[in-house]
Design brief:
Shape of chain A: flat
Distance between the termini of chain A: 43 Å
Radius of gyration of chain A: 22 Å
CATH topology of the domain at 5-43 in chain A: Histone, subunit A
Shape of chain B: globular
Structural class of chain B: alpha/beta
Strand content of chain A: under 5%
Structural class of chain A: mainly alpha
Order of helices and strands of chain A: HHHEE
Strand content of chain B: 5-15%
Strand order of the largest sheet of chain B: 4-6-5-10-11-9-7-8
Oligomer: heterodimer
Number of helices of chain A: 3
Number of strands of chain A: 2
Helix content of chain A: 25-40%
Largest interface: A-B, 51 and 74 residues
CATH architecture of the domain at 5-43 in chain A: Orthogonal Bundle
Helix content of chain B: 25-40%
Chain lengths: ~100, ~475
């Protein structure tokens, strides 16, 4: 396979990363090299093999439905770029 | 006091011959003098370190010291530590002061072990040379024109140079073992789930695992005793009885069966590395071990499968960095999408962006089965190869890395060549097995060569026993870089 510059720009938009045309072209070459490496995978017959999502067969633990976290909103929001009255501020999304 | 083991320092503290404050002052002075050359640390905060050291000395005076109380360690900057700048090597988190402690950090605090500083790393742990850090490359103390490996390159370099007696690292595809090999130290990646990932900034969550980096296998055992244990805040933390990882160190190796995967001794393994690994095999035979050839037929595809699975998980994990809740936000933007796209374009470096793009692509509509599911099927075949090999042997042995430390810049513009640095380590993460790297010789240029032992699930104590017995019989781990 081979990605086009438009493919790169489409993926970048899905990932919410701005790329310039020059970056898309440079990145395209590198991504194609990486996909050539990955392509070796396709030669293996994996019919009937169950996908392995996890290193160990784990199950989801359940816990009692009780409050475990203290209120640390101020400490957590201290790291935010912009807050007001306990809320995170972002550009207006609804007119 | 430089180039001491954790074990020696603990003995000195217990005998009253030194104090934690004295030790920390000594290490901080060495960091002040030598770090400008190596760039192994992103953050050093002597006031914080010395306050922790005074508390450790007070605990000892009060008779409440544990076995390692007062021994300082450095932490990879991937671990959130309350009140410390925690950057993960990225511009995205260049100003992030963590409001909480990772489980690993709280374990070291509970053990009374002061933090010497936060170590440099490849950005978001993505790299094999420590050149992708926003805070600049780390230099290898064996030759400052060369890389220390990555992504735990700062931790490796600071231990090799005696700027810290030990450090924490994390290993997603080799990020503890490969830098340990390239800097001549000992580093252990435990079985997946043994050490909690809580507060460890996520890269690829089904592969990420923290572990110790130190001068000796014995030190790694003592440090793993501090780091390991069940933590309900990590949903993949394993509920197991605590064990003493140092319990088997003294056992003789008579009857040990060492598996030698033929795929690890093929055409890719040449020269000084091949010779040093062969010499190590001979040493193990002298110690009473036998060897058997085993096969890991799918291991050659581990790099390909990894570069689907790890980027896929990374693209999901790193979606949280959006300029809203923490870290970097772009200056000028028109709307929310513009803010996201510019923040992420400016906040992430080139390698992180490449991997997010790969991950986004392989998870996108129409490609999911061909890439992501196929990679997960290969992952199972790779894990099954190991299970079959362990029917014939107790531990698998091979090289850690195909080459010794390479020159800064040599592979920086060639991602594929860089990815192949981890060709012997990646399969271990995919299977979730424990692996250890320790020094086993030097190449003609005087650069350290790493030997890798791979164990079955939860075989850490046995692997540390094997590594410790090797280190009792050899002195490669005692060699230090000239000038340090």
């Amino acid at each position: 396979m081979s990605l086009s510059p438009d493919d790169v720009k489409r993926i970048a938009h899905l990932a919410r990363i701005r790329v310039t045309d020059a970056e898309a072209e440079h990145t395209r070459g590198q991504l194609n090299g990486i996909f050539d490496l990955i392509a070796a995978m396709q030669a293996v017959d994996t019919a009937g093999v169950a996908p392995m999502a996890h290193a160990r067969d784990v199950f989801q633990r359940l816990r009692a439905d009780v409050v475990t976290e203290p209120d640390r909103r101020d400490a957590y929001q201290a790291a935010a770029p912009q807050t007001e009255a306990g809320l995170y501020l972002v550009p207006k999304v609804i007119e | 006091m430089s180039q001491q083991t954790i074990k020696n320092l603990a003995d000195l503290l217990a005998s009253g011959k030194t104090s934690s404050v004295e030790l920390c002052q000594d290490y901080l002075a060495r960091i002040g003098a030598r770090n400008p050359e190596l760039n192994a640390f992103i953050t050093v905060d002597p006031d914080k370190t010395l306050a922790e050291a005074r508390a450790a000395d007070a605990a000892r005076a009060a008779g409440s010291a544990g076995p390692l109380t007062g021994v300082p360690v450095a932490h990879k900057d991937i671990f959130c530590a309350e009140g410390w700048l925690t950057t993960c090597g990225s511009r995205m988190l260049h100003n992030f002061v963590s409001p909480y402690d990772a489980h690993v950090i709280s374990q070291f605090k509970a053990a009374g072990m002061p933090t010497l500083g936060k170590t440099n790393m490849d950005e978001f742990a993505m790299g094999s040379s420590n050149e992708t850090s926003h805070f600049g490359a780390v230099k290898n103390p064996w030759d400052v024109a060369r890389v220390p490996g990555g992504s735990s390159g700062g931790s490796a370099a600071c231990v090799a140079a005696g700027l810290a007696p030990a450090a924490t690292g994390t290993d997603t595809g080799g990020s503890i073992r490969q830098p340990a090999a390239l800097t001549g130290i000992t580093g252990l990646k435990p079985t997946y789930g043994v050490v909690s990932r809580y507060g460890m900034i996520a890269f690829a969550s089904s592969l990420d695992q923290a572990g110790p980096m130190a001068r000796t296998a014995e030190d790694c055992a003592l440090l793993l005793n501090v780091m390991a244990g069940f933590d309900e805040r990590d949903s993949t933390s394993l509920e197991r009885e605590n064990e003493d990882y140092a319990r088997d160190l003294a056992k003789p190796l008579n009857g040990l069966r060492i598996g030698l995967p033929k795929e690890f001794f093929g055409a890719g393994l040449t020269g000084d590395t091949a010779q040093a690994v062969q010499a190590a095999i001979n040493e193990f035979r002298k110690l009473g071990a036998t060897t058997v050839e085993v096969s890991l037929p799918n291991s050659g595809l581990s790099v390909a499968a990894y570069y689907v699975i790890a980027p896929a998980e990374a693209s999901s994990n790193l979606s949280r960095f959006d300029g809203v809740r923490y870290g970097y936000r772009t200056k000028d933007y028109t709307d929310l999408t513009d803010m996201y796209e510019k923040t992420r374009a400016e906040g992430f470096g080139a390698e992180v962006k490449r991997r997010i793009l790969i991950g986004t692509y392989v998870l996108s509509h129409g490609y999911y089965d061909a890439y992501y599911i196929q990679a997960q099927k290969l992952r199972r075949l790779i894990a099954q190869d190991f299970a079959k090999a362990y029917e014939q042997c107790d531990v698998i042995l091979g090289p850690t890395a195909p080459t010794t430390a390479f020159k800064l810049g040599e592979k920086a513009d060639d991602p594929v060549q860089m990815y192949l640095s981890d060709i012997y380590t990646i399969a271990v993460n995919l299977a979730g097995l424990p692996g250890i790297s320790m020094p086993c010789g030097f190449d003609a240029q005087g650069l350290p060569i790493g030997l890798q032992l791979i164990g079955d699930y939860f075989a850490e104590a046995r692997m540390l026993n094997v590594a410790h017995q090797y280190q009792l019989a050899t002195d490669w781990h005692q060699r230090t870089p000239g000038g340090y």
